[in-house]
Write a structure and sequence with these properties.
- By secondary structure, this protein is an alpha+beta fold.
- The protein has three helices and seven strands; from the N terminus they run βααββββββα.
- A four-stranded antiparallel beta sheet has the order 1-2-3-4, with helices on one face. It has a three-stranded antiparallel beta sheet with strand order 5-6-7, covered by helices on one side.
- The longest helix has 23 residues.
- The protein is elongated and about 65 Å long.
- The two termini are 16 Å apart.
């Protein structure tokens, strides 16, 4: 039986870059306090931009393909290709920048997609049709 591709999307590089800049600006007072006020604990808060940058690098170039039988994630941190059959999906949740797919083998978090709401809607529709 042939598969039909229902939807394809890739990661949005603008969201993580904007998040990185926002976190960097928010951490400036803590960095200045650590340097000039000699309160070195404040440097802990400077870690947030680094975490955002690593997250961006790990999620760059991910392609998501939704077919009528499975979800395929390729590129980025997934390596060559990760496949999740629709029959194994238990729950799908959505936020403004990510879609989290809970399936029988674990969890896949798809970050920084161009259209996360649309991805969530299509997966929910396919799951409820089974």
């Amino acid at each position: 039986m042939n598969e039909t591709i229902l939807f394809e999307t890739v990661t949005n590089p603008k969201i993580p870059k904007a998040l990185f800049i926002f976190l960097l600006i928010m951490c400036i007072p803590f960095i200045l306090t650590a340097v000039f006020g000699k309160i070195w604990f404040c440097l802990v808060f400077a870690i947030a931009p680094m975490i955002a940058y690593v997250s961006y690098k790990n999620n760059k170039g991910i392609k998501i393909t939704i077919t009528d039988q499975r979800i395929i994630a390729s590129g980025g941190r997934f390596g060559s290709e990760t496949t999740v059959p629709l029959s194994s999906i238990i729950k799908v949740t959505y936020s403004f920048y990510a879609v989290e797919i809970l399936h029988t083998s674990g969890v896949i978090v798809l970050l920084y997609l161009y259209q996360p709401r649309e991805v969530h809607r299509i997966i929910e529709k396919l799951i409820s049709a089974q």
